[in-house]
Structure formats: C-alpha cells, structure tokens
# Entry
Amino acid sequence: MPALERRTRYDIYADILETIRSRGVIGITRISYGANLPVDRAKEAVEFLLERGLVKEGDYGGNQGYVITARGGEFLQAHRTIKRYVSEE
Amino acid sequence: MRCLGYDEAVRRGVRALGKVGGRLLVDDATVEAASGDLVEVSDLTECLGNCYFRCSLSTGSLESRHGDVGVDGNLRAGGLVEVRDGSLSVGGILAAERVKVRKRLDVRGGLDAGDISVGGSLGVEGPAKVNRLDVGGTVKCASGLDADLIDVGGSVRVSGATRSSRIDVGGKFVGDGVVADDVDVGGSFEAGDVDIGKIDVGGTIRLGGGVVRREVDVGGKLESSKPLRFGRLDAGGKIWLSGGEGCELRAGGKLTSSGALRFTVIQVGGTVELDGDASGEAVEVGGTLRVHGGLRLSGGLRVGGKADISGILEAGSVRVGGSVRADRINAKTEIQSNSIHTIGGARAVRIEIGRRGEAHGPLVAEEVVVGEDAEVEDVYGGVVTLRRGSRIGNVYAVDLRVENGVELREHVVYSDHLRVDRRVSFSSQPEKAEKLPQPPL
# Structure
C-alpha cells in the first residue's frame, strides 16, 4: 500500500473549496469534517480563503455559512491542472 | 377558541375557519376553509409544530417557530412568511413581501415575492418572480426565473428564461436563455442563448450562443454551440466556438472555432484551429495554428511552432518559429520563418528564411535573406542575400550577394550588383539585365 502523502497547504485549500462547492452553504464544523482538518486549522484556512475572495460568508434562511466564489472555482480548476502536470502517473 | 394574545387558536385536530379578524395561532393542527377555499387572517398567522392548511391562506404575515408548514392552495401574505426551523410547501401560488425558510421551500404554482431566503433547497414549478433570491442549497425552477439578485450556495437549474442583474452561484448553474448583467459561478455554467454583461466561472461554461457584452473569464473550458458575440474571452484551458465576433480571445490551452470568426486579438498558449475564414488584428500562438480558410490580419501573426492556412494569409507581419504554409502570403512588412510553403508565393517588404529552412513557392520582397544551408525555389527581390551553403532555384535581384558554398540551380539575373564569395556553384552564367522579369504576384 503506498504511503500517505503529506498534503501541501494548497491541497488543503483545494479540499476545503471542494467540500464547500459540493455542499452549497456550509458551516466551519462540516468544512473541518469534509477536509479532514481540526476546526481551528480549518478556521485559519477559511479566513485565508475569505481574505482572497475564494469563498464568501452568507446567511441563507437563517443558515449561516460559507459558499465558494468563481475565484474559488478557478483556484480549484488551476489546482487540478497543476496536479495533472506534476502527477507521477 | 380564543387564546391569550390571539383572536383565534386551533390546537391539534382539524378546524374549519373563515375570516379571522386579528391573529391566528395554529398548534400542530390542520385548518380547512369553512366555505369556499380561502381562509383570511387579517394579522399574523403563527404556527407551532407541523401545521397544514387544506385551503388557500391569505394573511398579514405567517410565522412558524418549529415544524413544517403546508398550504394546499395559494399562500398570500402582505408581510413576512417565516419558517424558522422547518420546511414550507405551497400547492398553489406563493405571494409575499418576504419569505424566509430554514429548510426547504416547495411551490407548485408561481412565486411572486420581494426577498426569498432559504437555508436548504427551493423548488418552484410555476413562474418565479422575486427581487432577491438567497438559497443555501439547490434551486429548481420549472418555468423561468426573474430575480434582480440570485445568490445560491449550491446549484441552480432553470427551465425557461432566467432574467437577473446578478447571478452568484457556488456550484453549477443550468438554464435555458439567460439575460443577466453579471454572472459569478464557482462550478460550471450551462445556458442556451445568452445576453450577459460579464461571466466569471471557476470551472466550465457551455453556451448556446448569444452575446457576452464585456468579458468571459473561465478557469477551465468555454464552449459555445452557436455563434457568439463577445468582448473578451479568457479561458485557463480551452475555448471551443462555433464562429462569432468579438475582441480578445485568450486561452491557456487550445482555441477551436468551427465557423467564421472576427476578432481583435487571439492569444493562445497551445493550439488554434479555425474552421472557416478568420479576420482580426493580431494572432499570437505558442504552438500550432491551423486555419481551414483564409486568415486576414491588420497586425502581426506570431506562431511559436507551425502555421497552416489552407487559404490566403494576409497580415501586417508574419513571424513563425517553425513553418508557415498557405495558398499565398501577403505581409505588409516582413515574413520571418524557418520554412515557407506556398502555391502562389509569399510577398512582403522583407522576407527571411531561417537556417536550414526551406521555401516552396516564389518569394517576392524588397529584401530577401535566405539562411545558411536553406533550400529555396525562386526569389524575386531588391536586395537578396544568400547565406552560406544555401540552395536556390531562380534568382532575380537588383543587388545580389552570394556567400560561400551557395548552389544556384537555375537562372540568376541581376540588374545592379552581383557579389559572389568563393566556391559558389552556378548552373548557368549569371546575366545582367536592364529590366528584371515581373514577379508572379
């Protein structure tokens, strides 16, 4: 079985964005579950993404949480492209 | 039955009501219309637990603290409809100033409201007309959507036309015709005929043609199955068009167009394939350019690799790293390439063939430079320089400079000067003529 590879910070951002994209509006706890991160680290990463406009905060029918922006989607796309170029397979 | 603070109260069970002057409390109960189909409440209708109206309801406002609310007929509220911890289902039309639902909102008729805010999903079967639509999950509208602002965390699917000033969607948007000023989608955007100001999409865009007035910015791929008019198209990956007209086209990967294309600038990292005539100002391609038709440019053509044009190439200047192939090439200033392949010839002020390059078809220019060890058919020029080791067919020049080891295989005619280095091979004696023959183009 191949050894688990350590995720780069950009892999973590991509995992967070993918979790948000697939769920619609989502809170920090569920982001942490989806991206396999402790809540405090998930918070830090989401703050980083928020500052750069890759995610945004919203209140939908009383549900507060984060949603992905087009810039966030572009990051995900670019991340997938880079992964494809550097992948060993 | 009256209850403290309410003019009418229905607790569990089923009650028939007509008009309620004031406030109505419904606690885990079902309400029916005493006569006809309508229950009218002049002030607030408050629901606790799961409440069901087997009728239409007209009320000042409706509030549910917890549980689901169902209305068989129409629900009309002058003010707010709020379901704080549950879902709302309306069998007919929902008309209200504001609607706020924590979980799911289903409307089988039409929707006519000011602001709609839904935490979960929204489904509308009739036409939907709202001012502002905020939905955390998914939106499905079966008969069009008209909203000033659409802000959805998940995905949106609209059958029928969508009209909006701003569409902001986290996941995927799928619609028919879309008229909007600004579209911002994290995932993918699919629409039929569009009239949009600006589209910014993270993933992919599929359009059925139309107009994008200002800009399309897409992280992945852009496809348009019908001709598209555009301001600026910028794709991280591919652009696939069915012809169209616009300003700038920029793609990291590939640009394909299967119809005639008019543009200002094309800038592509990889490959450009145009099926049909194309015209614009400038084209810059990192890899390969293929045009199944003619290409007319007022400015420059720059190609890193290979340019293959099945018709006539007209440009301000042509610079191709590898080879350029066309029926005929007309450049206002210069043509610079390793190889030039034409049937009718290439004409410019200056033509330069690179080292070990080749040219098929006549070259006509005021200045022609044939690189070292290159092989060229016929040259008609003012000042012609044949570099070391090059092999030439016919040469007609005013001023001819022939370097070491050049092989001149056919006629050499000059009108002014001939300078020849050592070890030059002539198949026939060079001729000095008063007048040179007319070039073929």
In short: The CA atoms of residues 40 and 77 of chain A lie 26 Å apart. Chain A touches chain B at residues 20-26, 58-63, 65, 67-78, 81 (CB under 8 Å). The longest strand of chain A covers residues 55-60. Chain A has one domain: 9-84.
